[in-house]
Each structure stands twice: as structure tokens, then as C-alpha cells.
Amino acid sequence: MPAIILVGAQWGDEGKGKITDLLAAKADVVARWGGGDNAGHTVIVRGERFALHLIPSGVLHPDVECILGSGMVINPARLVEELDGLAIRGVDVSRVRVSSAAHLIMPWHIALDQAQEAARGGAKIGTTGRGIGPAYADKAARVGIRVGAMLDDAALIAAIRAHNPPAPDSDAIAQQYLKFAQILRPHIADTVLLLHQRLAAGKTILCEGAQGTLLDLDHGTYPFVTSSSPVAGGAFTGLGFGPKHVRRVIGVAKAYSTRVGAGPFPTELTDVTGDKLVEVGGEFGTTTGRRRRAGWLDAVALRYAMEVNGITELAVTKLDVLSALEEIQVCVAYRLRGRRILDMPTDAQALAECKPEYETFPGWMSDITQARTRAELPDKAQRYIEWMENEFGVPIHIISVGPERDQTIED
Ligand code: GDP
Ligand code: IMO
Ligand code: MG
User: Fold this and answer.
1) I want to staple 57 with a disulfide (CB 3.0 to 4.6 A). Which of 16, 17, 146, 178 is the partner?
2) Candidates 317, 385, 401: which one to mutate for ligand 1, based on the most atoms within 8 Å of Cβ?
3) Whether residues 114 and 253 fall in one domain
4) Mean pLDDT per segment of 10 residues, for the chain of length 411 residues?
5) Quick check: 189 and 98 in contact, CB under 8 A?
């Protein structure tokens, strides 16, 4: 069972990029299954920072094959830019494969995303403005253009011209996309076939989630969600394989919570503690630069994420950020309309009304960024991790204590 699914267990930006890069050292293939360049995955190796949006975070390992799966939406301009940016820095990008069945983000998707957000006024979702929602809407309506159209100039031009309503600048768009096609053609592949060849050869496939469980179109805090399936099940539909291959489902969770964009967030802190988490944790978006909202760990929401993903282990990130705090709180239950509840309501309105009930932990107030074993962590930090293992009923094999690849405790 050589596949591992790595999934964001909160609202995105959990540190999936860092953990993917770490685990990619032992993988043969790293594959993204959904989303597009709304994702921003940071990998830092020996002080060199890489922000990846479309290309899997395994790309810095020279022997890893990288797949952009069928469930993704691809802005070819951004993909070309990302490939070039990596190539300039000496990364061999010939190992990057894009599914011919993935959908193309077109300029009209971006314009529509931005126009829809502007029209929502005070009821904004706070999208990344990358055209993600409109591209997935066209896919579901069966009027989208797939990456495979880039293999045939005439087909691509015809598809662009056929767009309804007609784009006023469709010929200019066609010219632009033909240029992208020329560059991307060597990367376009039947990635389902490729993946099954690798599985048959006993290779290890690491499936890298984007976004997070609570942003899932079906299982997140709708309508404050993205338009794809960040949950583990999305890996199967987005890459075209089945559960029999999966051995581990790793949920990546921050030691606290953040959210970027609008929507309910019961443990959000709008006080100086929240500011401190943002400041110490550097909580500014990798894609949009927006300040993230920050708050305490929400165990109610995380228990929900454990279930909808079938998480078999957790990877906890940014534990070092909590070193700045004298006291740490964790939400263990909600109060909703006079009742104490332990299960997260997925209705956004109900969730917005939930008031957190906290359990308090003493902070350790010392630098843990040099710890490389659990035993090197202060007792109070060890207790926090043990509490999580106990609460969620799964082991924690990876604890991240800094953004660098090697600032990690792995057992
Ligand atoms: P992703 O979208 O899940 O890949 O996460 P992002 O890259 O958008 O955001 C995570 C941010 O936290 C990045 O700036 C990482 O460099 C940083 N990061 C990851 N793990 C740690 C950690 O353990 N400690 C600290 N201080 N920063 C971390
Ligand atoms: P990574 O992979 C955090 C959020 C947006 C917005 C909502 C919908 O880096 O964890 P969209 O542009 O997708 O239609 O926006 O989803 N969002 C993310 N938040 N991390 C991400 O990706 C996100 N991708 C989308 O902020 O609230
Ligand atoms: Mg991110």
C-alpha cells in the first residue's frame, strides 16, 4: 500500500508544503489532486525560501516525479511562471507532469471571480481572486476547457472561440494560450496511467493536499469555502486511484488555528494574543499576502477533520510559535444556544454562533526551535503533544518547530 495522503486539517496554511517537502525525501512521486494557484505552499531549505502554488512541494528533491492531477484547475500563465522561476534557481522541472484532464483557468474566470467578490459587498467570501470558483463552475457545467486542448492548436482556438458568452478579446487570448501551450506541451500527460504504472512498480506516492478540510466544498463551512475537495477523499477522484493503495492519511495541523478570508472561526482571537500569534507565526498569506486571522487550537473542529478525512496520524506544525505565550488554550467544546456541544455544526450560521469552551495549558516559555527529539522539548510542550495524541486518538510522528526543513522532530 504505497500511497500516503497528506491533508490540511484546518483552514489551510497548516504547513503542508513544509511537511510534504520533508516526506518527499522518501517518496518517488508527489502529486497534487485539487485546487490551483489559490494554494501557497512554503518550503525553506538552508535559508532558501520557495513559495509553490501549483507545482507539488516535492520538486526540490531531484529524483521525485511531480504530478498536477486531473482534479486541479490550472492557470497556464502561473504555471509557466512557476516552472521558469524554479528552473532559474537550478531546479530540474522536466519531472513535472500535468494531467490532460485538469481544467484550464481562463482570463474570464479571473475577471468573474473578482467581479463576483466586488458585487458581494459586505458578504464577501474573501477568495484569492484567482478564478478558482468560476473555473470549477464551468467544469461542473461541462463547458470548461481542459489542459488536453493545449495538445492541438486548432482545438484550443476553437474551444476559446466557442466560449459563451464570447470573450471580446478571444483572439488575443487564443494567441496567448497558444504560447503557453508550446511551453507546457512536454509536461502534459495522462497522469492516471502514469500513477498506476508507478503504483504497479511499487513506488511510493505522496498525495499533497491543498487548502484544508474546513474549506472543502462539501464538508467545510459553506459558502465560505473553496470550490474543490481538499479532504482526503478528493485525492481519489482528483488523481484517479482507489483507497486500497493508501497506508497513511496524515492530517497537518497547526498547534493553534488560522483562517484567511471570511467565514466562521469560533476560536478567533481579536486581542493582543491574536496579534502575537500573527506576529510570531508570520501569519501573512503566501499567495495574497493577506493577514491571516488567528486563534486557539479548536479540538472540536479538529475532531471533525479526523473523521471526514480518516486521519491515521497528525503532523503538528508551528509548535515553536506557542513558546511566546504564558498560557495556551484549547477549545474542547462549544456552547450553542444554551447547550454544550462536542460535535462541530457545519452550518456556517450555527458555527458562527458557537462560543468556545477552553481547557488551559501552561506555556513553556522557552525556545524549542533546536529540539530534534521529543525528549528535548520542555515537559510542558511534551504534555501538549501528548494531550493531542490522546484527544484525537492517533499518533503524532512529526512535530515542526520552525519553518526550515530540518527544524523538525520525526520519530
Ligand atoms: P501550506 O499552505 O499549508 O503549505 O502553509 P503555508 O506555507 O501557506 O504557511 C505556513 C507558514 O508557516 C509558512 O510561512 C512556513 O514557512 C511556516 N512554517 C511551517 N512550519 C513551521 C513551523 O513549525 N514553525 C514556524 N515558525 N513556521 C512554520
Ligand atoms: P493552501 O493550500 C488558506 C481560502 C480563501 C477564501 C476561500 C475561497 O495554501 O493552504 P478561493 O480563491 O479558493 O475561491 O477562495 O478559500 N483559501 C485558502 N486559505 N490556504 C489556502 O491554500 C487557500 N486556498 C483558498 O482565502 O477564504
Ligand atoms: Mg498556504
Assistant:
1) 17
2) 317
3) no
4) 93 98 98 98 97 98 98 98 98 98 98 97 95 98 98 97 91 97 98 98 98 98 98 98 96 98 97 97 89 98 98 98 97 98 96 98 98 98 98 98 98 91
5) yes
Domain range spanning residue 358?
Answer: 3-102+188-410
Which tens digits make up the pLDDT trace of 134-172?
A: 999 999 999 999 999 999 999 999 999 999 888 889 999
Could you confirm whether 13 is annotated as catalytic?
A: yes
Residue 102 DSSP class: S
Residue 98: how many CA atoms within 13 Å on its side-chain side?
A: 30
Q: Are residues 154 and 72 in the same domain?
A: no
Asked whether residue 205 falls in the same domain as residue 347, the answer is yes
As for how many domains the chain has, the answer is 2
**What is the predicted pLDDT for the residue at 247?**
86
User: Catalytic: which of 21, 28, 41, 219?
Assistant: 41
Q: What is the mean pLDDT of the chain?
A: 97
Same domain for 127 and 198?
no
What residues does ligand 2 touch, defined as CB less than 6 Å away?
Answer: 8, 12-13, 38-41, 125-128, 130, 132-133, 210-212, 215, 226-227, 260-261, 286
- What phi-psi label fits residue 399: left (phi over 0), alpha (psi between -120 and 50 degrees) or beta? beta
Are 40 and 122 in the same domain? no
Cα–Cα distance measured from residue 31 to residue 37, given in angstroms and rounded to the nearest whole number: 15
Secondary structure (3-state) at 306: helix
